[in-house]
Amino acid sequence: MSERIVELEVLRFNPETDSEPRFQRYSVPCMNEWVVLDALNHVKEAIDPTLSYRWSCHMAVCGSCGMMINGEPKLACKAFLREYEGVIRVEPLAHFPIQRDLVTVIDDFVTKLKRVKPYLIPKEDKLVEAGEFKQSPAELKRYKQYTLCINCMLCYAACPEYGLVPKFIGPAAISLAHRYNEDSRDGGREERQQEIASNEGVWECSFVGACSEVCPEHVDPAGALQQVKIKSTVDWYQEHLLPGSKK
Amino acid sequence: MSAHGKPYVREVSRYGWFFRSPRYLRYMAREVTCVFIGLHALLLIVALMRLSDGREAWEGFLVNLTSPAGVVLQLLILAFAVYHSTSWFNVTPKAMPVLIGENFLPGAVIIGAHYAGWVVASVAVLFLAGVF
Question: Which value does ipTM take for this structure?
């Protein structure tokens, strides 16, 4: 249990008094096994109680503590201090407006998530007495990877397209739409296509691939988006070359 | 949006954003090298035009093509075209996952299939050109 002093440079912004953000330096006595979130908690408890940031589970499940650490989108609970040297710069997630300190305004993502209907829309209504909707292991495998998304929004902070074109629905929301489209029990693809196959959907993506590189759950949103592009292209050809054929 | 003051919006620069991270630079390298694919297409079109202009024009074109500048240009085009193509091959498993039974085909197999296709196509072109 060794201890060292870690220098944190944290972006601060108080919307009531500040016109723009500024960096504040904290010297934090840290244990070797601490993550950045532990250091922030120490600052909040022992140095500066006014520091604001979101966190909850401390185990990479809730997706609340996403922030830029030395310019990289990371979960603060998964960023071990021992992997950093020198001053560690902590900023709110890129591409989102800053509410206060490290807290961002995430309304845009939540609205987009709702638009893609990330829930099962059964193909047909079935009474509970009729039993469960069965699924084979292979059918589960098709989409399971995309169920691991924790809505942490690191992919939005990594995506240069989203930074430049904020109307882009973005990696996580489209990946979740793809997750339900690929589910054998689901019949909602037509509804979701109206959102994700539009100009604001997959066609805004130019396959930078940064979303997949920063994803803490290895969801591979970049893969999901390319697959949606291919399927949407097949739709287009079916519609124009084989009119009358059912998708 | 908030009862506690106006949120601060950080502007994203339209220019130079790709210098922020090596992964953005890798992306730009993949995208920009497509220019050399276009250059090669242009070279082929010029070759066809010279060919249609008659024997003299065609032979003049060949002289230019085999001059030091012509060779350097073609080597540059080849290097960047290979980089462009292989960088796309390497991301194909993401776009085209193949589920066999309950397992996805390993990415290396999908990438390998693209390289194999490339070799077959190259051999076919060389065969048509009378190299063998």
Answer: 0.88
